């Protein structure tokens, strides 16, 4: 019994010992020597147990591959595969050193399915799995004598310590080829590598087509990845070896800032590079970055000659043609198919005769285009000269760390960054350049000089204010007669102070309060012409005999100030014979005044609605007045540099000069539109009762068509000699309703003012009424614009559309609207401009 126990103990001890031994040899082995065989199931483990080498099957596959993966990391993360094209179908494969010294993978039939395939000088070799994840085949006697290493035969993963070869004479090095799919390590259709030609960059290809590129390496970062500066993992990461090997090769390496970090770059089966760091605490991979990630990182996302900007969202997505270029296929572009790209709007003259020579326009913060070449400049030659001389050169740039580059082909794959990037100079036809691009140096010199002199001037003015004023008074060619009684200073400064830093401050003569006071005899009652929207209008008489009209803002009126500024800004820029001219202004303490040309015949309403005076307005005159107003309005809407909506057109705002020519006045409420804008909203509805278009009165929407409505009302008033509002409360609600009523009964003629009745121009008057009715249609859509109105009036359009029945006037007369209008700030309902706030 005791014997038995002793034997048992012995056997057990032996067994345990054996087990231990095998375990130890198992786990410490990081190499295969000549006489060893690694069978499926056995593993090589690197010295500090970071990597393992052996047979594996990808998830959901039974095929056996030989590869390297991280030890102790779940799920299994494979970084290298040997027999990716020839998997084994069973577990009978083995790894060994062949007789010729190569490391081979054999199948159950002893057939070699994979080999390192080199010619070692000695067949006494050893394969070792290093701590970095590199599997090396070396001479057993001299381990530094490497014949082969897995780091030079990469699959899809770039590991720290790997050397990524770059050699311009060899060309593109597509070292990494991802798996075909998540479970199939065979080579997929993508590849990742370096394009060393021109300026060196990293590229992802799909077949032969580029899918992403890093932008040129500037010896610190890849310029197309500006965040590299902010990412400490990067900034200390990539290095390009130097000096080159004898054959001209240099190598990219990557060293993590913390060498104990496990980091990897892997190109996924779908052609995307992920950078991961192992998180030891959470025991999972942290994704550091993805390329291409943002939409604009996709190669040439916007097509040739265009720029992608991820911070923008245009109508056409994130793409825009570079300045001076336009979409090749506008429709596709608008439908967000950018593959057609952009083309030059104006071809380069390139030495041919042209008005202006080709020039360059600088784009900032750019990912520079692909396929540039680095050039070396001879002394005294600039890159601009070099590019300008070569007709195929489209752009040049200077990139710190690379030098001068030019692009002679199409400009491809450009991106605009919010931070970082490089400036690039795009070549454009002379006519596409604004003058200031001409010479940067001159620009700088001039601005410095300009600033200096401006400073000097301000200093002098400040120092000699008094004397200068006196001097100016003596010297100045004062627009309005006498130079003793009115002091005028042509200065934008005062206006600037008042209206703020407007870009286009008009240069308007400024008059002193005293000179105006004496011209208007201290604003005497006799000189009072009327009471306009936001102030009283006086007649002024300068001693030279020149007459002016002065609008004086009531001192307290805050609101008037707004209109005052508006009028200065607007009307000073407008020049048309049917617009009243602003001659100057006065800004002194609480006094704000505008000076206009004096209109001896006052305003249209003083004639039109006056029993006696109206007779002097025969049909010819009325017709001319209508035409004049229409042309003035068309100028505002279309022909001036700005698009202006007057918003307060009415009989009392049309002034008449000595020849009874109409002039539109009072631009206090006018608004400037930009050209593409066709309507705007305001919460402050201003206008005059009876002239306001329905959409404006009720919703605060105004457009040129709301002016057309006012014009229509005015025209009906001129033809009929009656006020629109005088029909309030009547059966038809308004003049418009009355006109409709007569028209639908075929009695339009009755609308014509009796004082002009019996004229031979009845058809013309009827035409005016018809057009007036079209202008006062309730729906914006049914109203013509001023251009068509003029054509209609000049009988150039023979067939006028039928007007529809107007409904709106009845709303306008309902109590509801009146309450709203009456609730605020209204002086009188009849003649004076109303202001109301519509609650929103
Ligand atoms: C390998 O086996 C050969 C004989 O086949 C032997 O001569 C040699 O010493 C062995 N080498 C090692 C390292 O075990
Ligand atoms: C291996 O090398 C030794 C001497 O270096 C040689 O004798 C032997 O034949 C070689 N074996 C094979 C299979 O080539
Ligand atoms: C494989 O070849 C080795 C020698 O290279 C031999 O010893 C072994 O028996 C062979 N195995 C099979 C299954 O053929
Ligand atoms: C290893 O890489 C070299 C070039 O780097 C290549 O010629 C060779 O085919 C590769 N071998 C394997 C087994 O992938
Ligand atoms: C990694 O683990 C952390 C903590 O457990 C978790 O918050 C995070 O979502 C995980 N990340 C991934 C990619 O699974
Ligand atoms: C985009 O436009 C190109 C031609 O420029 C055309 O070949 C392609 O089919 C278009 N793609 C789509 C999705 O419409
Ligand atoms: C864009 O430029 C490339 C390179 O010059 C050219 O091959 C391609 O045809 C161009 N694409 C279009 C749509 O013109």
From TrEMBL:
<dbReference type="Pfam" id="PF07714">
    <property type="entry name" value="PK_Tyr_Ser-Thr"/>
</dbReference>
<dbReference type="GO" id="GO:0005524">
    <property type="term" value="F:ATP binding"/>
</dbReference>
<dbReference type="InterPro" id="IPR036426">
    <property type="entry name" value="Bulb-type_lectin_dom_sf"/>
</dbReference>
<keyword id="KW-0808">Transferase</keyword>
<dbReference type="InterPro" id="IPR000719">
    <property type="entry name" value="Prot_kinase_dom"/>
</dbReference>
<feature type="domain" description="Bulb-type lectin">
    <location>
        <begin position="29"/>
        <end position="150"/>
    </location>
</feature>
<dbReference type="Pfam" id="PF01453">
    <property type="entry name" value="B_lectin"/>
</dbReference>
<dbReference type="InterPro" id="IPR000742">
    <property type="entry name" value="EGF"/>
</dbReference>
<dbReference type="GO" id="GO:0045087">
    <property type="term" value="P:innate immune response"/>
</dbReference>
<protein>
    <recommendedName>
        <fullName>Receptor-like serine/threonine-protein kinase</fullName>
        <ecNumber>2.7.11.1</ecNumber>
    </recommendedName>
</protein>
<keyword id="KW-0723">Serine/threonine-protein kinase</keyword>
<dbReference type="InterPro" id="IPR024171">
    <property type="entry name" value="SRK-like_kinase"/>
</dbReference>
<dbReference type="GO" id="GO:0004674">
    <property type="term" value="F:protein serine/threonine kinase activity"/>
</dbReference>
<dbReference type="InterPro" id="IPR017441">
    <property type="entry name" value="Protein_kinase_ATP_BS"/>
</dbReference>
<keyword id="KW-0325">Glycoprotein</keyword>
<dbReference type="InterPro" id="IPR003609">
    <property type="entry name" value="Pan_app"/>
</dbReference>
<feature type="domain" description="EGF-like">
    <location>
        <begin position="292"/>
        <end position="331"/>
    </location>
</feature>
<feature type="disulfide bond">
    <location>
        <begin position="302"/>
        <end position="319"/>
    </location>
</feature>
<feature type="domain" description="Protein kinase">
    <location>
        <begin position="523"/>
        <end position="812"/>
    </location>
</feature>
<keyword id="KW-1003">Cell membrane</keyword>
<dbReference type="InterPro" id="IPR011009">
    <property type="entry name" value="Kinase-like_dom_sf"/>
</dbReference>
<dbReference type="InterPro" id="IPR001245">
    <property type="entry name" value="Ser-Thr/Tyr_kinase_cat_dom"/>
</dbReference>
<dbReference type="Pfam" id="PF00954">
    <property type="entry name" value="S_locus_glycop"/>
</dbReference>
<keyword id="KW-1015">Disulfide bond</keyword>
<keyword id="KW-0245">EGF-like domain</keyword>
<keyword id="KW-1133">Transmembrane helix</keyword>
<dbReference type="GO" id="GO:0030246">
    <property type="term" value="F:carbohydrate binding"/>
</dbReference>
<dbReference type="Pfam" id="PF08276">
    <property type="entry name" value="PAN_2"/>
</dbReference>
<dbReference type="InterPro" id="IPR000858">
    <property type="entry name" value="S_locus_glycoprot_dom"/>
</dbReference>
<keyword id="KW-0812">Transmembrane</keyword>
<feature type="transmembrane region" description="Helical">
    <location>
        <begin position="441"/>
        <end position="462"/>
    </location>
</feature>
<dbReference type="GO" id="GO:0005886">
    <property type="term" value="C:plasma membrane"/>
</dbReference>
<keyword id="KW-0675">Receptor</keyword>
<keyword id="KW-0597">Phosphoprotein</keyword>
<keyword id="KW-0418">Kinase</keyword>
<dbReference type="InterPro" id="IPR001480">
    <property type="entry name" value="Bulb-type_lectin_dom"/>
</dbReference>
<feature type="binding site">
    <location>
        <position position="551"/>
    </location>
    <ligand>
        <name>ATP</name>
    </ligand>
</feature>
<keyword id="KW-0547">Nucleotide-binding</keyword>
<keyword id="KW-0732">Signal</keyword>
<keyword id="KW-0472">Membrane</keyword>
<keyword id="KW-0430">Lectin</keyword>
<keyword id="KW-0067">ATP-binding</keyword>
